[in-house]
């Protein structure tokens, strides 16, 4: 309990420090300095939570569209600690107290669900970021899992990478206990609240988050659905997870009119389907993945 209390206090102070940095410095410093501060703050956050980062993203080409599986709100800070990026978020997050303000000031691109006109504007914004060799990250599952399986990858937000001729960089995210076994503590799923998830993380003596890139996918002359299938297969293989969709997910997608992923291949290894997916703070649904808290 004393250790958890100390970590919670340090976490609260760190969040206040981050707000102060964004308010006082961000309007007056260059983009490169902003990215450095974002990366440093995210690494300090992981340290406070006793989460050790094992990441190898330095070889990714600048201006990549990073496509990752989604387990926790912590994914965002793990990615930023490894390589600071802009995220795609549903527009509702912009109206959230404090979080919305922070998101708007830390390179978040907001997307209005169901608006084709706004989707075009967002795609142009992502295109501009990629063309300027700034990385953009999406979680194409559109919600979180417990990390033991993958949901379908929705392809809508992969189009800007194709339009800009920028590479698609699949990234596999996983959490592990100190003994190397898979950790479910960071999973933000089902009825778990954000506070419960934070407490589960800080209750561990330590956790390892692995951020592993797979070979980048060229986007020239390729359809976004083909790229979505290829990115999902690459991440499944890297995480040793089954490529087949969980049966309940496939049925739900058919009912919703979403084309499910093909079940013609299987990645090495297997996993038990545990836990129901949920939307982490800022997650969007359907073809509109991700969020920046």
Automatic annotation (TrEMBL):
Task: Give the transmembrane region(s).
Answer: 12-29
- Offer one Pfam family short name for this entry: Acyltransferase
InterPro entries given for it? Answer: Plipid/glycerol_acylTrfase
Subcellular location field: Membrane
Q: Which domain of life is it from?
A: Bacteria
Q: What keywords does the record list, in alphabetical order? A: Acyltransferase, Lipid metabolism, Membrane, Transferase, Transmembrane, Transmembrane helix
Stretches the record annotates as Disordered: 254-293
According to the entry, every stretch annotated as the Phospholipid/glycerol acyltransferase domain falls at 64-176
**Presence of keyword Transmembrane:** yes
GO MF entries? acyltransferase activity
Question: Can you name this protein?
Answer: 1-acyl-sn-glycerol-3-phosphate acyltransferase
Q: Which organism is it from?
A: Rhodocyclus gracilis
**What is this organism's lineage?**
Bacteria, Pseudomonadati, Pseudomonadota, Betaproteobacteria, Rhodocyclales
